[in-house]
Amino acid sequence: MSFGNIFDGGGSGADSAKQSAEALNKDTPGAGDVSEAVRKMESERDPWLVRQTAHGAFDVMGFLNPLFQKFHDASADQRQVSEDPASTSAMASSTLKAAGPPKVSIGEDDMPKLEDLSKLMATRRSFALITTGLGTSEGLAVDPSQNTAYVADRGGQKLSAVKIATGAQRVVASSLGDIGDVKLDRKGKAYTTDYGARLLAVDLSTGTSSTVASVPGAYGLALDGAGKAYVVSHSEGKLVAVDLQNGQKTTVATGLPVGVSAVALDGKGKAYVGQRDHGGNLYEVSLADGAKRLVTNLPGASTIRVELTGDGKAFTIDHLNGRLYEITLADGSQRVVASGLATCEGLALDTANGQIYVSNRETQLWQITQRDTQPMGGVGKVAA
């Protein structure tokens, strides 16, 4: 049934009731000439009773007639509103001007209960401490297909595998030297750097390791997925490409500051190199000719690790202040999206599942939900 039919029916009913009231008013003795008819009846009956009855009846008839008229008018107005919503807006505007803006009052009964908030917070975690006891981590890689994180322990010269869902951990390989970073080839091998001038290949199934090439000051590491590793020399300020099959080295860029510590590849011919010490700079380097530009500077911080999101942004950790930064590569704009990460030294992204992983020297491995870093203020301070 349409709104028109509803309000037409209401209007018709009001008309019928109005006509009946008018007929009753016309045909009732005394309704037209109250004074004379009432006077006649009062002469034959108890004057007080008749007066009350007659006058009351006439009062009711006088009330019903305009009432049904108002109902008829209201029905017509309702139909107009259904067919012309603008009239409702005008009426609301007029009411607001007359009565003023609505006032909102919130009392204690309207406030959420603490137990309800606890339930909501328990189902939505921005971050989680996965496990502890991982040594002085300085490198981190994640294999989402195996739900496993690989944490490099510089102090213990070892590589540990951690099940993300449970926090269970085991040592995969040891005697890896002054380990600085780790990356996975997703083919059963991990590659690690040793500040003592080695790039190592680690068999994840057996734990054996072998030297691929000698790179003085080797620290930050990235794999291109096409058989090459890119290593930054912390002590010499260089970016070096290494062929993983034969260990052949090619210098990609020189003149980078001493203290560079991170490298990430965008897959489009550019590398992004972070500086751990003496400035906290982030550089963009062309793999074709070694040309570089300064993307941004983090005053009083560091860019010890860099990971790219694939949509023009990067994440970096500041190990000096325990913070996670988001950086826009086009203009270098930056913001802190998490703090409280202690002396963080390892960073890895699982962009497919929207997770960020951070490890630190305090033996901890953290998981941070990437979507919760997007609002202003990010996830705030993480706490165990």
Structural account:
This protein has 2 domains: 3-98; 123-381, 6 Propeller (Neuraminidase). The chain has 5 helices and 25 strands. The protein has helices at 3-27, 34-44, 47-83, 85-99, 114-122; strands spanning 127-131, 137-143, 148-153, 158-163, 169-173, 179-184, 189-194, 198-203, 209-214, 218-223, 228-233, 238-243, 249-253, 260-265, 270-275, 281-286, 292-297, 305-308, 313-318, 323-328, 334-339, 344-350, 355-360, 365-369, 380-381. The strands form 6 sheets. A 5-stranded mixed sheet has the order 18-19-20-21-25, with no helix packed on it. Strands 1-24-23-22 form a 4-stranded antiparallel sheet, with no helix packed on it. The protein has a 4-stranded antiparallel sheet with strand order 2-3-4-5, with no helix packed on it. The two termini are 60 Å apart.
Topology:
Layout: H1 3-27, H2 34-44, H3 47-83, H4 85-99, H5 114-122, E1 127-131, E2 137-143, E3 148-153, E4 158-163, E5 169-173, E6 179-184, E7 189-194, E8 198-203, E9 209-214, E10 218-223, E11 228-233, E12 238-243, E13 249-253, E14 260-265, E15 270-275, E16 281-286, E17 292-297, E18 305-308, E19 313-318, E20 323-328, E21 334-339, E22 344-350, E23 355-360, E24 365-369, E25 380-381
Parallel strand pairs: 21-25
Antiparallel strand pairs: 1-24, 2-3, 3-4, 4-5, 6-7, 7-8, 8-9, 10-11, 11-12, 12-13, 14-15, 15-16, 16-17, 18-19, 19-20, 20-21, 22-23, 23-24
| Count of spatially separate domains | 2
Order of helices and strands: HHHHHEEEEEEEEEEEEEEEEEEEEEEEEE
Strand content: 35-45%
What structural category do the secondary elements indicate? Answer: alpha+beta
The largest sheet, given as strand count, sense and whether it forms a barrel, is: 5 strands, mixed
- Looking at the structure, the CATH topology of the largest domain is Neuraminidase
Report low-confidence residues grouped into runs of 5 or more. Answer: 46-55, 117-123
CATH class term of the largest domain: Mainly Beta
Q: At the fourth CATH level, what is the homologous superfamily of the largest domain?
A: TolB, C-terminal domain
Number of strands: 25
Q: Roughly what is the average pLDDT, rounded to an integer?
A: 82
The percent of residues in helical segments reads 25-40%
Number of separate helices: 5
Name given to the CATH architecture of the largest domain: 6 Propeller
> For the CA atoms, what is the radius of gyration?
40 Å
Distance between the termini: 60 Å
Spatial arrangement of strands, main beta sheet: 18-19-20-21-25
Q: What is the overall shape?
A: elongated
